[in-house]
Amino acid sequence: MAVDTQTVEKLAELARIAISTETIEEVSTRLGDVLQLVDQLQAVSTEGVAPMAHPLDEEQVLRADEVSEPNRREEFLQLAPQSEEGLYLVPKVID
Amino acid sequence: MEWEIVIGLEVHVQLATKSKLFSGASTQFGAAPNTQACAIDLAMPGTLPVPNEEAFRFAAMFGLAMNAEIGRRSVFERKNYFYPDLPKGYQTTQLAEPIVGPGEIEIHLEDGSSKTVRLHHAHLEEDAGKSLHEDFHGMSGIDLNRAGTPLIEIVSEPDMRSAAEAVAYLKKIHSIVTYLGISDGDMSQGSMRCDANVSVRLKGEEKLGTRTELKNINSFRFVERAIKVEAERQIDILEDGGSIVQETRLYDADKNETRSMRSKEVANDYRYFPCPDLLPVVLTDDYVEKLRTELPELPDAKAARFRDEYKLSAYDADLLTQERASADYFETAAKKSGEAKLAANWMTGELAALLNREELSIEQSPVSAEQLAGLILRIKDNTISSKIAKQVFDAMAKGEGDADQVIEKRGLKQVSDTGAIEKMVDDVIAANAAQVENYRSADEAKRPKMMGFFVGQIMKASKGQGNPQLINKILKEKLDALL
Amino acid sequence: MHQLTIAEIIRGLRDKQFSSVEITRHLLDRIQQLDGNYNSFITVTEELALAQATAADERLARGEAPPLCGVPIAHKDIFCTSGVRTSCGSKMLDNFVPPYDATVVENFNRAGAVTLGKTNMDEFAMGSSNETSYYGPVKNPWDTDCVPGGSSGGSAAAVAAQLAPGTTATDTGGSIRQPAALTNTTGLKPTYGRVSRWGMIAFASSLDQAGPIARNAEDAAYMLSVMAGHDAKDSTSLNRPLQDYTLNLNDSIAGLKIGVPKEYFGEGLNADTAARVQDALQEFEKLGAELVEVSLPHTGLAVPAYYVIAPAEASANLSRFDGVRYGHRCEDPQDLRDLYMRSRGEGFGDEVQRRILVGTYALSAGYYDAYYNKAQQVRRLIKQDFVQAFDKVDVIMGPTSPSPAFALGAKSADPVAMYLEDIYTIATNLAGLPGMSLPCGLVNNMPVGLQIIGNYLDEARMLNVAHQYQQVTDWHQQYAGSASAA
Catalytic center at which residues (chain C) (predicted)? Predict the structure, then answer.
């Protein structure tokens, strides 16, 4: 199944990945190859089969409502590319 | 043409858990930026979520209070989009299998009528952080303290037909969550936020009109105004032959208008899918039934009991039970004073006016329920008149102490000394010979009304402290003696 | 000293033949001398290793040391290590030094193991040849013109080159077993949930599972005993009793029923590889096991289902790498969109980008049912195949990989050809079953791996079966270079 470059652009926008115009053809072709592979799934009937999101049929164990995490702001902020006054900085957010 | 407004509300309520929905970081409001954002909240690589039991308990309690089905199996999904206040790049929420299924509640309108509003569902999800727009060299600052705070999103059916109904519904939700103690419901701090889906159609039309979504309206008053102004906008467009664009709009309270949020209009595709880091949460019948028996008395039941037990009017009962704190206040004052009706009157009268004036909640009331009861007791035993009581109340509000202390300190005790009152009556009769003459020559039927003048004069002379019953009695005796 | 197995090191430390500092020093020197040939390490933690070794020697001297105390190992660079750069093989995390440990790392630290460093890997564990690493490809110690397999290529190569007696690794679709097969090492992917995923950088959360790569089954048993266990910080972690996997190694396997799936010996399997695997099966018959033909009819759908599910989960898991709180950030972002687009465009390599795009596609409106939902349904069919097979047999055996190691660059331009490398390993991840690979022979002097698939939580039996085989064969004792040197 071929994937047109327009679709790739849309996906790249959703996934927020910049793809250069020089490589977009190549990316489209490769993506098409992969989708051709996964299209084999369409050959099998799965009527009435419940989808399986987890390999084991386990149930969630819930956590008691306790505050267990200390303030480690300075350690975490050290990892940030840009921060000031305890805040992470990003280009202006426009609502 | 007669138009009908159709409203559905999506209400986000922050749950009052101590820790976050998926981490052990504190949810306390007002901490310094990012001091309550742990590795999980910051979406540090390799970190994993573990859901908070209390959030499920709270959400299930809410469902039970809404007469809703409780999802015995609920599943978290990922809603994918990029935003700096959303560290993982997806919000963990529920979609196909929420914790609370369909239900319904009754709302009470100001005209005394009631109406049932259906609940579509309510689901658990995590809150996002905050973008601070102060200028940091042209950049925005991100505070992730709020990221991961548990929310329930409560989605109604489009059952409301006026802004007033929407407000009544919102107040009902507020009252239920605060009664249950699952949220502080504080709209000013964002603990409760509301999105409204608004459309209009010609009366009698079955098909719903194109709707717009009003985002993040943060007070009861604004909800009412925003819906009204948006409905008017839509009607104007339709009456001019135009059509409504389905979009997200923002209510501008300063200008009292709604405007399109074009920035949010970029076609989004949230790519929901079950969160593979979390397993289905299963609640047993036993668990749900136990919760049901543990539910506190809810507003409607309490109002019914107040009507029955305290003989309150339906109006007073509804008013006093809207907030759990005021219901508790009332019951304390009523029980301690033994005068439910008086307690209700004082609460809806003087106390309400005071709180309104000072912009205080009932929890912050400077006059406690016990103090109010003490005041009512003094009215009841004739220590003070109702008129003096208002003066005492104001003094209590200023922190001058209990009713007894104020009465004592200010010398407001009612004068019931017969000798003193007789003297005042004699003085007034002597000083007003003309009025006495009028009284004497008047028709017998007119005399009781004419007594009012003398009573007023005597009360004035007693600085309002004369016992009115005693004054009336002595005055009548003395005037009749002159006949 | 570098030829010692973990079991031998444990004895040597207790018999005071050498100290932990001595063997640690020796391996650090060896890494420095030789790893230029293999590129199996991204980071060598010399100071940390020597400090841990010193502490371990003190603990051993006090006579209160658990088995792995003082044993040098290395961690795949997907496990967060407090204070040590954890790159996940990506430019995105080239500067990332986590202030916390993965549970697996914590478990080894508590056991007193010594961390030699962090091993190379395919970027975000996406690859089957270790060629997608930002830090360059890993070379197969058996032939440095060949790939070591992936994504745990560094972990496998480090063991094969005798730079570490054992390493941690992760397996999402074969990333422990396939490199183990290609490097003549023994690797085990446990049952999903047996080992905590906390602090292990996620690729596909419902498939990822950590396990050991070592020289033999006994060593893998020692390592798994430390790694496995319930962790309340991982919601998908299984709450089952802890086990000492070394206890049952010497049990007889007479009467063992071995399922041989016919679908694992069909088209696409290298004939020589098939022959080595058949030899191994005959060896098991000699040990008293019985071979039973079984069918796993949906085998052919495992790769397609996997390449929907894994990219879908990855597309969301990797959204957190946005240049805001940590990791790579582009220069001078013009606006928020530009920050995201360029930081991610620059920080992620081609294969990672490709998988994110595939996953985004599979989850997007209009395609969810045809792709994601369909794949999850097929996943159940695949699991049911195994459940039915395990009604009849105790373990399943077959090849780990369709052919021995291929030349560097041979498949890097063709992702689909690369994906088919994992055709025999992927199904166990989809089903959540444990699988392992052990050496079973050479083809043109390149290793071949035998795969053992066990029933849920049956790791002890798998290790027992593998150990018994290794008592009567010496393929696992063939070391890279030993054949050519001989």
Answer: 76 (charge relay system), 151 (charge relay system), 175 (acyl-ester intermediate)
